[in-house]
Amino acid sequence: MRQLPGIFLLCFGTLTLAGQTAAPGFDFIDYQRSFPRINNALKRKEDTLMKQFQARHLAWPVKNIYLRSFKYDSQLEVWVRYGPKEEYKLFKTYKVCALAGTLGPKRMQGDYQVPEGFYYINEFNPKSAYHLSLGLNYPNSSDRILGDSLQPGGDIYIHGKCVTTGCIPIMDAQIEELYILAAHARNQGQDFIPVHIFPVRYSNPKSAAYLTHYLREFPEYKQLSANLERAYRYFEKTRKLPLIMIDDKGEYIVGGTSAEKDPPPAPEEVKKPRRPLKYFDEERLAKVVDKLPVYPGGNKGFQAFLDKTGHEMAVYLNKDQERTYVLVEFIIDEDGKPAYAKVVTGGNDELNDRLQEKFEEMATWQPATRLDKNVAIKLKQSIEIKR
Questions:
Q1: Which helix (H) or strand (E) holds 229?
Q2: Pick from 345, 333, 330: which is nearest to 278 by CA?
Q3: How far apart are CA 101 and CA 168, in angstroms?
Q4: How far apart are CA 236 and CA 298, in angstroms?
């Protein structure tokens, strides 16, 4: 069982500072002033932040901060405290101004998902292409076990510019404030600033209802959501961070133990001849549609196909793989027939061939339409393959 770094027991390691390593005993704020973008931000924002803290009866400089983000609610909260025995107090809530992906965790490179789970800030980037950015330690220990073993993805940041392909973006003026707060906390000795990312704000009835609906469609995320909610409820009740552990299967444990069953033994490896590559005339594809194609049985039917396929394809995993995430690109043509499936990311030669074949053998869909006419469209779908 693993203790997750950055919650109660801080992990041992180094902190990345725009490509450099922090040396003990140096003034982090003075170091940050050496970067023009940060120096200008400190001149503009530091006095205003001090006054905001004073108005909320909070001491300056900030000693310790905790960040938590809610994907569906598009919010990023900043909590502060001044000693390990104190309760956290809410300082400010920022609006997350863009969102990529859907609810659910990030499991592979290129899936455009914002991670969900327990992280900490491990990088300050004062020269970011997104104005300023604070890096998160994704993939953490859980992600490395549950995510794609070869390409779990990375480079997840809280940053400015209000654009994203899987990060947490806020406005430039807000990232300046947050960067300064984090830098002061770092200067006061907080080496690892915890960042908890939740699918929804569980206390919001509308958000909770959306999550309930989502989990009916994707029941494989129920355990993660339950563990995240347990951590959320604990903090709401105590205003202190829960103890977070990670078991040998990569599941979070929040003040309890995991009762996961061992996975069934992997079936014997089966090999078939590789199929020839196929290509589709891109000119036939609709760029815009009025109605997307529908799998027989709707989303539930498609999810059942993905679950069954993910189980069947496990036989083609490499011997050292327990699971992988594969991104498949495929066509639903004008007649609703699946065709020209192609693995974009993940897998291996044998697995990809069989998976592409499986997608092309899907049942006929209700085709997409544009101006009351059936049209062909390209879709992308990630699928988990596990033993």
A1: helix 222-238
A2: 330
A3: 12
A4: 37
The span from the CA of 71 to the CA of 77, in Å, is: 12
Distances (CA, A) of 91 to 105, 117, 229, 249: 27, 22, 22, 36
Give the whole-angstrom CA distance, residue 177 versus residue 74.
18
Give the pTM: 0.65
DSSP helix/strand/coil, 44 = helix
pLDDT digits (tens, 9 = 90+) for 257-295: 343 343 444 444 444 454 454 556 677 888 888 999 999
Let me know: does 376 contact 308? Beta carbons within 8 Å: no
pLDDT value for 161: 92
Residue 38 pLDDT more than 90?
Answer: yes
Look at residues 116, 129, 96, 313 and name the one whose alpha carbon lies nearest to residue 225: 116
The b/e string for 119-153 (b: 16+ C-beta within 10 A; e otherwise) is: bbbbbbbbebebbbbbbbbbbbbbbebbbbbebbb
The string of pLDDT tens digits covering residues 78-119 is 999 998 889 999 999 999 998 888 899 999 998 889 999 999
Residue carrying the six token digits 């469209």: 377
